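ingest -> fold -> write
write: protein_1
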Amino acid sequence: MSGLCRKGLPAPRCSPYQHFFSLLLLLALLPTLVSAQQRREREPNSVYAERRAKLAANIDGPIVLLGYTGREEEAQTYLFAQEENFYYLTGHNEDGHDEQSAALILLPPEGSKAKKDDWPAPREIFFLPTKDPDKEKWNGPRMSPTDPGIEARTGFAHIKPFPELRATVERLSRIYPTFYTILPYHRELGGYPHEKETVDWLKQAVPQVALRDIRSDIADLRMVKSPTELTLIRRAVDLSVDAQLEAMKMMRPGIWEYQVAAKMVEVHVSGGSEAEAYAPIVGAGPNSTVLHYEKLSRQIEDGDIVVLDVGAQYSGYAADITRTLPANGKFTPRQREIYDIVLGAQEAAMRVLGPGVNMCDKGDKSVYKIAFDYINAHGKDLHGKRLGQYFIHGLGHNIGLNVHDAGNVCKPFVPGMVVTVEPGIYIPEENLGVRIEDDFLITETGYEQLSSKLPRSADEIEKIMAQAAADRSHPQSPAESAQDADAIRTLVSKYAQSITAADAALGAQLWADDPDVSFINPALNLHGWDQIKTVVYEQVMGVALSERKLTPGNLTIHVYADSAWVEFPWHFEATQRKDNSRVVTQGIETQIYRRLPNRGWALVHVHYTGALAAAERSGN
């Protein structure tokens, strides 16, 4: 296959080659969306449209972007995930077929001096692969240009079959001398082949057109997160925090690095994560000094220090959190010395974190320089030399659709950015590596630490690990485990009763009264019992709906010491008071319970996904 005729590009001149209420209130009258291979919750179509309008506002020619075909990876384990910039602008996360992919053309807006064509509004064209019934027998339905209601589902008013892309590009080339696309460059995490092939195809299709790079314009938009993006990042962070806590509890000499990684991935998946944000890094002993160690082949030994850099992805958005643990639950004096220096560097950076600073390696606004100077001024290696030489990477990066998200670290921070702060010291001679990493939302007045629930101090970590070791030495008997499972079943039943009856008083008996409890669905991210009570029990169940009935299916229950994880299918029916319409939804729900002192089991987290099962209007 040549660079001019690649899979996914039309080349005729080349040789062939919710659980209930968000779904009830928001989706009841819309057709159910077809899911792509990688499970995701989309933002509203209006958000993607606003991004496209901002991008097109200042350009003097068409923007031409192509999505992935799904053939970029041949592994049987591959789950399709759209090219990040294309997804950011369209929300489209489906693969193509037979050398077809989705594509997007944005034209200079109406009223712009750059507008030279007579193309009718709207000033954007979305291309979708044609229908392929044979492939759909194997992989399920995919959206196509001829689907009823496709405009409402995609958010585009003008949709064409993908084979018409070339003719459209050729027509525009007779009007505009310049096109914009993403020009290729080599980078650590890939993207280069797709970008190069797109550019090669454009050069072959319209050789007279000059191509300019739109990458940095999209990156500037991606740096500032929308409210929905922040909701998804928070969920990824919460799952990553939960996984780190489980790792602290299971950590001990004799287990393997891959076992720790597997437990952390299990926590992510159980909470709704569709993929890891990056390959898990669990490095013990000498492996703690390797920045991106991914082999996971060492058996953890007594006296090892263990770096755990593991982050969940949720609906395409990444978290990135690192903790460093003593394998046996107790830092040696030297390990604690280095750990406390790294922690001190992070806290020094946090004291100035906020709008206006950056992560360049120089300048009076550099947060990196503050962290580096702290490390260089505290402690020495075995030869009496300063430790700055062992801080061998940057202080942090943006996170979002990529764990190393788009954006220039030398640009001043602005509110709405999400960044990591991750100082580290790595001394191979001592088999001693320490990294501490947290995720931060930049706000108008400073920052919000999204991962604040995860302890950072050596004392706190040792306390958690000591308690876990004590719990392991006094394991539950089978009878105790059965009693806990029965207690959880009773609580799930009461939860269903509280929703069916819109009974906030019963809900208060179930939920922990803690600001960190959460209720997550495709449209909402509620935190704290007061917010859950107001929105779920009072506004939705009590006001918006009547004749409610929530029915849980068979429960899957796992009890881990003082935590319990539950998953079950659910079926929900209700009548909307505003129009007397009857709606039926169904899906899968995950609940997490914690055993609290002087109270027993309490609900701390609910997350569900769902779909419209039926809709029948019974009113006039």
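write: protein_2
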Amino acid sequence: MFELLFKYPPAFFSRGKFVLLSRWPVWVLVLLIVIAAAGLFWNVRQRHGLLSNMRAGIIWFAETALIALLLFMMWHPALSLARLRPQQNVVAVVVDDSRSMGISEDGKTRLAAAETLLNDQLIPDLKKRFQVRLYSFGRDASRIDQTQGLVAGDNATRIGDSLKHIADEAGTMPLGAIVMLTDGGDNTGGVDRDTISQLRQLHVPVHTIGFGPDHFAKDIEIVDVATPARALPQSRLTARVAIRQHGYSGAKVKLVVRENDHPISEQVIELKSDADQSETVLFNAGVKGAHTFQIGVEPVQGEENVQNNFMVRLVNVAEKKMRVLYIEGEPRWEYKWIRRAILDYDDPAIELSGMVRTTQNKTYYEVARPGELANGFPTKPEELFGYDGLIIGSVEANYFTPQQQQMIRDFADRRGGGVLFLAGRFALADGGYENTPMAEMMPLHIPSQKTFSRDFADVALTEAGEESPITRLEDARDKNDARWKKMPQVANYAVMGTPKPGAVVLMTVAEQGHHPSPLLTIQNYGRGRVGIFATSGSWRWKMLQDHTDKTHPIFWQQLMRWMVTETPGEVVASTPRQVLSDDTHLPLRVNVRDKNYDPVAGATVQTTIVRPDGGSDTVDLKPDPLESGVYTGNYTAEKPGTYVAETVARQDGKTELGRDTLTFRREDGVAENFGAAQNRDLLEKLSSDTGGSYYTAAGAKRLPDEVSVSEAGITAHDNLDLWDMPILFLLVIGIRGGEWLLRRKWGVV
């Protein structure tokens, strides 16, 4: 219908430039329209007879519009656009033959539907005007002679890599356009900017034809799973699972964590209406070693694709003692029972050392190593930075020198350690912390007045606290909530200020009839973590419950593990993806610091990677030119399986600065299980960014005409007449006929 009225396809108008081909300038056209409008206005004003002013105005407007339209047509309007010269340009036709194209819909696979469209319609029409070069693509594009016999068997779809491959060939041929037939199920997260930029520079439009539905009628898909990359032995971890489903609103399903195909944790969740939702599930990290977990939703009857219900994640469990220093400004029950929570229950991951000021000039030390804290609280960064976590109890701020206060701040910010502040008579607002460097790192604003109260108060979990592994005493959420509701009151608390941006309040405290105040609040700060536990009365959780109850030790062990688990060493190796799904490329990044945790430039950094077959490879990492102390490299994982990478950094090639171990895994045959529905948004954006168009299979018949409009390849600039468009003649007849009908109705014909 559009071409019937406007003579040309929509793409011609969107890509062409409007011009007037008359030798007369545009100002003459405008002047004539103004003169005609004035003359008609005078004529209607003199002869409007019994017509009201409004009706006379309508007649004048219709006559003026008619004259303006006729003058416009006389000025010879046209579209100026570049079109590919017939038979002098190449059009690349690219067919997706990845596994997702083998999904059947309406009795025919997507690939079969693409072949039918190409062979019966597109290729014959394109060959009449252009040279056609055929490609198939999955991981990469490759030349083919014909589309018959293609098998949807490639385990990955990399649209960006395939387009780059074809764009690189543009230098050897007059490439006019790319036509891509695909479901858009890209496994790399989209087309990178460099590829889009390259296509734009070449002026090569990418026209996409999408296959498959936007979503399955009945399907539950795991979109992503976030788990910690590292953990301490027997730690309780949280997996945050992003779920997308269609057709199962309100259904109850099992969210499961498996290891070696054995369930180790599960919980029942209710699926929301057709939309994405996020759920959490807790599980135990287990013993030392690299653990592979399968996390997802148990398949439900009627699902169209059950291969996308689980994702694999790796967690490296390191068996090492994390050092925590606890300083108290006065003898308190809290100090005693926190120590007993670690020592009496033999937490293998925490090494706790303490110092308590018993009188103004006397300090009692309980240290884990001989000679530790011989000179009191550390005065040098390398001494304090030897710890992984720091607990500051009822100690006034001026107990620490200005240099020590800055060190405590740097302990979290630069060293990456965990710091926990407790309430007390000499702590927080009551200890003068408000205007110190330590106040900046705290997750809550510190009140200007003293707020510590020796009153009993109830504690309650917030919504975030219900999800956090710190406050999870029971794996089942409802049991955990019930247990906290029965918790004995704390013996004291400090009223705190409002949370800072990025802070997370896990627990609140309040006396009966009072407004709740944050009790346990955490936040990330720099490379580390900072928390405030605004009480020194949690010891009652042990003393007022049965002697076999482990609430208090479980809470404190989990809180300390949160403090120290992610505390980095001098050398930290990382990769953006620990699981390579049908991919071989592994980027490596290593952060190297000295004993003061300042970045080290000029180090020698080498990674030794043990392959699944027992062999090993070595990667020499190079300094990042943009970030001091960061070294990067790349590795190709040739075979599926689990890899172990050990990185060593040395100064001057001799002195070892530190080492770190990283595990990653390559899996084959899984990438195409996810995102199997048509990714129409990606295809539309790709076409829009490159000057092409998106088509459905049913609407692709107009593609050969629109492909010819391109600035790539060998082109000719044409001026296409617009003055004879049927829509203009219809407007002329419509305006004149409408005016006559109005005159007849109003009796002035």
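write: annotation protein_2
The radius of gyration is 36 Å.
The longest helix spans residues 26-47.
pipeline exit 0
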